[in-house]
Design brief:
Blueprint: H1 9-21, H2 24-27, E1 32-34, E2 37-53, E3 67-84, E4 87-92, H3 96-124
Antiparallel strand pairs: 1-2, 2-3, 3-4
Amino acid sequence: MTQTLSHETPVLETVRRVVENAGASRVFGEPVRQDGVTVIPVAKVSGGGGGGSGTGPAPEGQEAGGSGGGVGIAAKPVGVFIVRDGKVSWRPAVDINKIIMGGQIVLAVALLTVRAIVKARARMS
């Protein structure tokens, strides 16, 4: 049985378009200028994709086949470059979710430590 690329073409076409559109313009946003200050937003862009095809049993007289694929892209702001008076500075974006998650982890570890100390003292008495 010979398999053709005709049913794979949409997946390959999608991957080709994603690769062509990936570049610095996706990471660095359009500069914003006001009062002699230029702000250039920066993002982390990541993506992935996959695809596959296969055949399986088919009723007599029919050809088995199948294909599928997908592509995903995510962008996350990481900060801005600020250009003022010929000098460039970096201001990172603050991810409040990471701060909250870190606080929760520290609190959980502290509570478990206090619990262990209380149990150890209770056994000693």
